[in-house]
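Exercise 3.2. Students should predict the tertiary structure of the chain below and write it as structure tokens, then compare their answer with the key that follows.

Predict this chain's 3D structure.
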Amino acid sequence: MWTVMSIVGEFCRHAFNYNVIVWQLVDVMEMWFIGGVYYYTLQFRFRRYFPLIGVLYTLFALVDMFVINDVLHGMQNGLFTGNNYTLVVKHILLVTIILLYFEQSLRHLRNVALERDPVFVISVALLVFYAGTLVLFLVRNNESITLKSYVLTIPVLTVLNFLLNSTLAWAFWLVGKKQKKVLEPAPPSHFA
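Answer key:
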């Protein structure tokens, strides 16, 4: 999805000299794709509300895009319009969903090495990325921050992207591997 949207974004940048709408739609699509994975992974009763939350989030993102930030006006005048509210809501929702997955993992301890479980590895990568970028986003949008501090957020974002992508690659590599079981504890001895 990210690859296709990057290609579409670059095409729009060259063809229309404006691609902000594409990147704002990526935020909506990320929520649906990642939310869909956890919809099928989580076993909480709460997950039945995921489609409703997704629809409400999408409506909110569209209102943020077209009403609050007026992306069409920005497109006509070549202005950048940010979807700040959508980003904050997306990050909070995704971090919450990932934490629900960790809660489920703790409740249903399996006899599998977690570092070999692709969903666990992806969850760690997404949690680090979304929690880190949320903090960066809040720092970058703080009006009292100095230019030097603002510029320092770019290398941190680069490191977070590298960690996310390398961990995702590792997780996809793990999908084809057989999960390694953790050693079973020895049965209790009758002599103890």
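Discussion points: DSSP finds seven helices and no strands in the chain. Helices lie at 2-16, 20-41, 50-68, 71-77, 84-107, 118-140, 147-175.
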